[in-house]
Amino acid sequence: MSTATRTSKSPRELYSIAKHLGAWNPEEIPVVEDRAHWETLNEGQREQLTKVCALFYEGEVSVSDTLAWFLVAMPDADRRMFLSTQVFEEVKHAEFFEIYFREVCGKVDTAAYLVPEYRGVLVDDLRKRGETMGRAITSGDKKELDRSLTMFAAHYMGIIEGTMAVTGYDFFDDLLAKTGMFPRLHEGLRLIRADEGRHIVHGMDYLREMLAAHPEFAPPVREMFMQQAATIPVRTEFVFTPNAFDLDRERMLQIGYDHIEQRLREAGLN
């Protein structure tokens, strides 16, 4: 495997880190302590908090279900080793939100929050990319497999993890700074964020390497990022309706754009 474009940790190094830092247990976080804060919220505040947590949960379930395609299709053994830890961690992230809903927010139909602007990128389109990799594997078409691996990495690690999720973490940071509430939610998010940091480092490193080897893949990857950037206002509006915690909507909007630009730079597309 070429290392000509690598500027970060190797997959084997990330695998080693994950063995030490990714072994936290969602069941050991006493999230029920946040219930007292939940009880103080008004209806609009509950709606906004539930909405963001539901989108995180649905995203975690979706990426857990589809990452197996990427792992199976990946030809490099060290990357497969790291991806095995990522599958484990994504499932744990979904478990954390599942526990949080049960112990703090109560029963929630999380899928009801998957409006089209979120359902496509988080679920339907990602599943299609996984299926495309599957067809490329069975057909033996290496060029198509390389292309589908590249597009999946851009979508999964560049958009979902590297833009949407990290913007969501900033939302929760603002919420904590504003209210000082929900310490156990923030504890879980801190651990999830650390895991996702490894995922993004690995994914963007792989994407950069593939684009260096296949410059012809750069235009569709860039187009994907531009299309997703265009949806940021609509998605932000959804999360901030209502804006019951009176957070800075325009700041969050700009953060989303900033993350898109950062991922483009990391991919060598700036």
Order of helices and strands: HHHHHHHHHH
- The first-level CATH class is given as Mainly Alpha
**By CATH's scheme, which homologous superfamily applies?**
Ribonucleotide Reductase, subunit A
The largest β sheet comes out as: none
- Total count of domains: 1
Count every beta strand, where a strand is a DSSP E run of 2 or more residues: 0
Residue runs with pLDDT of under 50 for 5 or more positions: 1-6
Q: Indicate the CATH architecture.
A: Orthogonal Bundle
The CATH topology is given as: Ribonucleotide Reductase, subunit A
Tell me the distance between the termini: 24 Å
Rg for CA atoms: 18 Å
The count of helical stretches stands at 10
| Structural class by SSE content | mainly alpha
Helicity range of the residues?
over 70%
Q: Bin the strand percentage.
A: under 5%
Shape: globular
Report mean pLDDT, rounded to a whole number.
Answer: 95
Task: Give structural notes.
The structure is a single chain. By secondary structure, the protein is mainly α. It has one domain: Ribonucleotide Reductase, subunit A, CATH 1.10.620.20. The chain is 77% helix and 0% strand. It is built from ten helices and no strands. Helix 8 (218-230) packs antiparallel against helix 10 (249-266). 41% of the residues are buried. Mean pLDDT is 95; it is low at 1-6.
